[in-house]
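For the sake of transparency, this paper describes our internal protein records without simplification. Such a record has a labelled line for the sequence and another for the backbone structure tokens. Nothing more is needed to write down the fold, since each code stands for a local backbone conformation. For reference, a complete record is included directly beneath this paragraph.
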Amino acid sequence: MFTRKHGELKKRGFTRWSYSAWSTYKRCPLSFRYSYIDRIKQAPNYAMERGTTIHALAEQYLKGKITGIPKPLSKIARVLRGMKAAKVKAEEFWGVDRDFTPTVKGAPSWLVAKTDLYVLLGDILYVGDFKTGKIYPEHIDQASLYATVGYALFPKVKKVEVEFIYIDIGEVHSYTYTLAKLRYNLRYWKDQGQHLMKQTKFMPTPGFPACVLCGYRSDRKLADGSPGLCDKWKLVK
């Protein structure tokens, strides 16, 4: 039930990964299987829909499609104005192959990352990511991966700065990556991606907060209205 034969990831269409896929597997391999191999859709929830809506508002503002700061973004108004003045590029997909060589638009990628915004300031690459909701420790992993992909796309930079803009609380958390860190992270994320793509076992790992947030729980409905698939959440005290 929880295993797949060697090569099953590729046969089932999982030929590229992302931070979301990696973090899902790290949190619960069974949830990863349901989402990325079996392609079973979770029912949308309020937090997801709200996050999508607010991200769209930020994108529209940065691209000049709306002029004033929308009310849901009021706590980061000053930050947004600074970003717009810096002429950041909003909502772009980055892709690299197994060697972290950039892939051209339309070509298959081994690893993909969707950036909320970025800008080159001399030999420094700035990457920004909008977050709704709480601050989670694992965000530092996302910062590391995005900095590494950015370095692969812009190899002449000497530093990458990744900032998470927490919209609901009006805070900005920044992580700086020097060349030494970037080179180390390049090796680390290559290994992480290769490890993920080789997996054949997808055992559930019930725990907090993974099970609390999981849309595959047996007491919830999936996107098609059918019952959830996993009852391991009952083991969490």
